[in-house]
Write a structure and sequence with these properties.
Elements: H1 2-16, H2 53-66, H3 71-82, H4 89-92, H5 124-132, E1 137-138, E2 158-159, H6 161-164, H7 168-175, E3 205-211, E4 217-220, E5 227-231, E6 236-241, E7 260-261, E8 274-279, H8 283-286, E9 288-296, E10 306-307, E11 331-339, E12 359-365, E13 376-378, E14 385-388, E15 411-415, E16 443-445, E17 454-458, E18 483-485, E19 495-497, E20 512-515, E21 520-525, E22 533-537, E23 543-548, E24 560-561, E25 564-565, E26 588-591, E27 604-609, E28 622-626, E29 632-637, E30 645-650, E31 652-654, E32 676-681, E33 687-691, E34 694-699, H9 727-730, H10 735-744
The structure holds 2-acetamido-2-deoxy-beta-D-glucopyranose (NAG) (12 copies).
């Protein structure tokens, strides 16, 4: 009976295996690989690794404990243990449900499509079988019970592979590499990726204008429909329908009829306003949504919270002086929760919500008036709320907030808003806590009799997918999925995921997920690879950057500006030396002088990995832009999953059949976008550009006469490109006109980014 069960489970496991995706170099604990200060003495990994010397020593002991006499098998086993130190260990050890005891071993049948070098040629799994099948190993890592599936508990005695596995093919079925999806496998040494041919950048981005309004944020409706929310900086959110591409329709948005109007609470100024919004993944059922905005305590009594300049971080508010006539901590950054669950039982049918704050999630007083990010996003894999916060402003982060682990400025935070410490005080019934997270059907339940201080995840996180289950491969032991209520009440009402980085680094405030940012302006998760958490971070004087955010990553600011050492002009808060930190450098970006020599660029606007087939030539590229709207870039990753990008500035123009005619920059073919504020993505994964002149969508290249060989032009009603000249070249950059145009523009710098 056990045996049958075992086999069924084993097959289920195998069916699940091909379902996970590849990712950039990442360690099993979700941290970025690093350069070891001293070379590892046991494992042959040295440049970018996932083991420190303590872990290296641990592996050495584990290896010695196996007491393997056969030299061939012994060296293979050593290499297998050491795969933990590989910069791709997260990928090598990942399963749907957690972590494997040994990495995925390359199998002769693996895909030819993988970017990994030498794969097809190296049947590593077979080598392991052939060399080790008859060799006795103490505490064998190949015991079936360690595979997490098979039933027979294994005694810690010497055992041969043949004791567990009947044949090579059964063995390689269990441990061999998967094919098709291009995920990585272990072939006996460090994973190296094969450079494929450099992907050609798209010839151009074709835009159509579908709205006249100026918005700061766009968020797709979580119910999967063709609707999205748009928000304005002064504080309104609208629910709009998105027209079919090519239909000639415009955005269905009634400015006079907002979904919610928060203008009474929001402090609106060049650098302040309604900065972000997020809809609970299960919004369609629970109606919970969140707004991130700035408020002024002199205008609104609800605007009170702790000042981010305080003695804990070596900052005295009375010494800061005023900024733009504002006193320190006169303004705050706030996350407030609202509900669209007033009248009907179906929040997704709601067309408006009352501006009645259900709950305050977070309030923090701001030292100065700029650089306070404000975007909020739910992580697609973990369901937690990520909150992007800038360094708080002024020149060069004078108080060193971004590097200060006690400060929440210059950080990305990660909060659990499904467990509320204050639940029993603010009238939420305990039953309301059993809200389903939606993406996985996991259920958060307040456990009875625990006094509200602790809660447990009940049910399976398996379906939350992408390996975010239990097992130390991804989180730490069983901590993922459990959550600790954090109720010191410093900043608000939320709980802290127990696997936030503070669990390993006690100096870190528990909210912190990543540090060393200046002003993250637009982050996104790749919808096909959730481990690609991309953030653009605005530069100070010289460099605008895009980072891949990983757990506890330090992105360097104000020690570095992008890859460049930064010398702060003011240091009342002391300094951090370059060799005291291990910064993670940007994967994309641009120099201010790249755009034009005279005026320079303004600041970066982070976008998305383009995942729509509307423009197949842009598919898989990461798009970002400069605020001044004279440049849009596409970043191509090569090799795939290497985390290495080549970037190209791409031409863009407006479709001749755009539903709303685009104005042109005088004397050029460039559409007059004026200022790019943000990008947006709808449920079809189409990409939108939110600008001061309206809402634009990236559409089929042929509508701008850009050639894209992958586009099915026969399906298109509008005229095809024919034997066309290269229109991409025709659209050169009329820089001089642009400079004149922008200089004459009255809308000067947008303080919220700069
Ligand atoms: C890293 O290890 C490889 C192989 O073990 C070796 O060829 C290379 O020289 C080493 N590099 C450094 C910087 O130690
Ligand atoms: C290791 O193996 C050797 C012989 O191969 C044996 O003498 C020794 O007792 C073994 N050690 C342990 C701890 O089992
Ligand atoms: C790299 O890929 C190319 C084509 O995809 C292949 O011909 C070549 O053999 C590969 N090189 C290695 C080292 O795997
Ligand atoms: C392992 O043992 C089997 C059966 O005893 C034998 O057929 C095979 O040749 C052995 N393999 C090695 C590599 O010694
Ligand atoms: C492990 O070995 C010991 C001693 O040989 C034995 O008493 C015990 O039953 C074994 N356990 C299992 C699960 O086989
Ligand atoms: C690994 O290769 C063996 C044959 O060598 C094959 O039977 C097995 O299905 C392969 N396993 C996987 C997971 O690809
Ligand atoms: C490799 O990729 C191509 C194109 O993406 C696809 O048609 C083919 O089926 C893939 N081959 C395998 C073995 O996955
Ligand atoms: C947008 O503005 C243009 C010109 O001002 C106007 O013709 C058009 O009707 C407007 N479209 C929408 C959908 O508001
Ligand atoms: C939403 O409204 C329904 C029906 O009124 C109610 O049963 C449910 O508990 C509410 N949910 C929340 C999260 O308030
Ligand atoms: C600046 O931050 C670093 C990193 O946290 C810290 O070591 C240093 O002491 C800070 N400087 C001051 C004066 O707090
Ligand atoms: C694109 O080509 C069509 C005909 O091939 C032409 O009518 C149209 O004006 C062209 N559009 C642009 C923007 O050049
Ligand atoms: C292109 O579109 C046409 C019309 O929709 C369709 O019949 C044809 O199969 C499509 N071709 C490809 C390669 O998708």
């Amino acid at each position: 009976m056990d045996g049958v069960f075992t086999i069924i489970l084993l097959f289920c496991n195998l069916l699940l295996l091909p379902d996970f995706s590849s990712s950039h170099p990442l360690c099993t604990d979700l941290r970025a690989p690093f350069s070891p200060k001293t070379p590892l003495s046991f494992c042959p990994y040295n440049v970018s690794v996932c083991c420190n010397s303590a872990e290296d020593l641990q592996l050495q002991k584990q290896f010695q404990a196996m007491n393997v006499s056969d030299p061939a098998c012994s060296s293979l086993l050593k290499s297998i243990l050491c795969a933990r130190c590989d910069q791709f260990s997260s990928e090598l050890f990942k399963t749907e449900t957690g972590s494997r005891p040994v990495p995925i071993l390359c199998n002769s049948t693996v895909s030819v499509n993988s970017s990994q070098s030498n794969r097809a040629a190296n049947d590593f799994c077979q080598r392991v079988w052939d060399s080790c099948q008859n060799v006795s190993v103490l505490n064998s890592p190949f015991a079936p019970s360690l595979q997490g599936r098979a039933g027979v508990p294994v005694n810690s005695t010497f055992s041969k592979l043949t004791a567990f596995w009947e044949s090579k093919s059964i063995f390689c079925n269990a441990f061999g590499g998967v094919s098709d999806d291009g995920s990585l496998c272990f072939d006996g040494g460090p994973v190296s990726l094969n450079n494929t041919e450099t992907p050609r950048p798209p010839n151009g981005l074709c835009l159509e204008k579908i709205g006249n309004g100026s918005y700061l944020n766009m968020v797709a409706h979580p119910d999967g429909s063709n609707r999205a929310f748009f928000s304005s900086q002064p504080g309104k959110i609208w629910l709009a329908t998105i027209p079919e591409e090519g239909s000639g329709g415009t955005l269905g948005l009634d400015e006079s009829n907002p979904f919610i109007d928060l203008t009474d609470e929001v402090h609106y100024d060049t650098g302040s306003g309604l900065m972000g919004m997020a809809f609970h993944p299960n919004f369609a059922n629970n109606g919970r949504f969140f707004a991130s905005f700035n408020c002024d305590k002199e205008k609104w009594p609800g605007c009170s919270g702790r000042c981010s300049c305080n003695s804990d971080v070596g900052c005295d508010p009375s010494k800061l002086g005023s900024d733009n006539r504002a006193q320190p901590c006169q303004y705050s950054s706030v996350i407030a929760e609202f509900t669209a669950n007033d009248t009907t039982s179906q929040p997704s049918l709601e067309k408006r919500a009352k501006p009645l704050e259900v709950r305050r999630i977070f309030t923090m007083g701001l030292p100065f008036t700029s650089n306070h990010g404000g975007q909020i996003l739910f992580g697609p894999a973990d369901g937690y709320l990520y909150f992007m916060m800038g360094d708080g402003g002024n020149k060069g982060d004078p108080y060193n907030f971004s590097q200060n682990k006690k400060s929440l400025l210059g950080k990305i935070m990660r909060l659990n808003i499904n467990n509320m410490p204050s639940a029993e005080f603010d009238g939420i019934e305990a039953s309301m806590e059993s809200c389903s997270i939606g993406i996985g059907g996991a259920t958060v339940v307040r456990s009875a009799g625990d006094g509200g201080t602790r809660s447990m995840m009940i049910g399976s996180w398996l379906a939350l997918g992408r390996g975010m289950g239990e097992g130390e491969g991804i989180g730490k032991g069983k901590t993922v999925g459990e959550s600790e209520i954090y109720d010191r009440g410093l900043w608000g009402n939320y709980s802290i995921p127990t696997d936030n980085p503070f669990s390993d680094d006690k100096e870190l405030q528990p909210e912190i997920w990543a540090l060393g940012l200046r002003n993250p302006w637009r982050c996104s998760f790749d919808s096909e690879r959730p481990s690609y958490f991309m953030c653009a971070d605005t530069g100070e004087d010289r460099y605008e950057e895009v980072d891949i955010i990983s757990k506890s990553g330090n992105y360097g600011w104000r020690v570095y500006e992008g890859p460049l050492v930064y010398n702060p002009p003011l240091s009342p808060g002391g300094n951090t030396s370059t060799n005291s930190i291990n910064p993670i450098f940007p994967v994309m970006g641009y120099n201010h002088s790249d755009i034009n020599k005279n005026e320079g660029s303004a600041s970066i606007i982070g976008g998305y990995f383009y995942r729509s087939m509307t423009d197949p030539c842009t598919y898989g590229r990461y798009l970002y832009a400069d605020l001044y709207a004279s440049a849009i870039w596409a970043g191509s990753e090569n090799p795939e999953n290497s985390g290495k990008f080549t970037t190209t500035q791409v031409p863009f123009s407006c479709a001749h059949d755009s539903p709303i005619q685009c104005k042109s920059v005088p004397g050029s073919h460039l559409p007059a976008l004026d200022y790019i504020f943000s990008f947006g993505e709808d449920n079809k994964k189409d990409i939108f550009i939110l600008t001061s002149t309206g809402v634009y969508r990236v559409v089929r290249p042929s509508r701008c006469n850009y050639t894209c060989s992958k586009e099915n032009v026969t399906a298109v009603a509008s005229p095809g490109p024919g034997p066309s000249p290269s229109y991409g070249i025709r659209l050169s950059y009329p820089q001089k006109e642009l400079v004149l145009f922008f200089c004459s523009s009255l809308l000067l710098l947008l303080g919220f980014i700069l």
